[in-house]
Amino acid sequence: MAADGKPSKADYAVKQVETVARGADVMARIFTLAPGEIIPWHAHSNVADHFFVLSGRLTVETRAPDAAHSLGVGERFTVAPGNAHQTSNRGGADCRFLLVQGVGEYDWVKA
Questions:
Q1: For residue 1, is pLDDT > 80?
Q2: Would you say 54 and 96 are in contact if contact means Cβ atoms under 8 Å apart?
Q3: What is the rounded CA–CA span in Å between residue 65 and residue 12?
Q4: Which of 2, 19, 25, 98 minimizes the C-alpha distance to 58?
């Protein structure tokens, strides 16, 4: 949370993010993570994250339960609202994935 009590905005940089669709309660983006790039620990109050791997390998780490999920092309994984998670590319080549977020109001809460 920011000092004013409002949810934080995402504070990270990755190789590329392309917005495919954005509505009042759903968002779809294609992310490209270069080797070693990380989307740091965070959670969303009201939306689930649905990951669909398009190329490379994606690692999604979660808390409650503590787990690391290594996903390949064609695999998918969902993180429920309120569950802190971190996403990274631990491989040697770029990783591309479709991230669908919804349904609900989007926020990004640093964990």
A1: no
A2: yes
A3: 24
A4: 98
pLDDT tens across 46-77, in order? 999 999 999 999 999 999 889 999 999 999 99
> What is the per-residue pLDDT across 23-51, written as a single tens digit (0 to 9) for each?
999 999 999 999 999 999 999 999 999 99
Query: Collapsing DSSP states into helix, strand and coil, what is residue 21?
Result: strand
Partner residues linked to 61 by β-bridges: 68, 86
Structure tokens that stand for 77 in this block: 């994984």
Q: Is 19 exposed, middle or buried (0-12, 13-18, 19+ CB in 10 A)?
A: exposed
Strand order in the sheet with 58-62: 67-71, 58-62, 85-88, 38-43, 109-110
Structural domains in the chain, CATH included, are 16-105 (2.60.120.10)
Any idea how long the chain is? 111
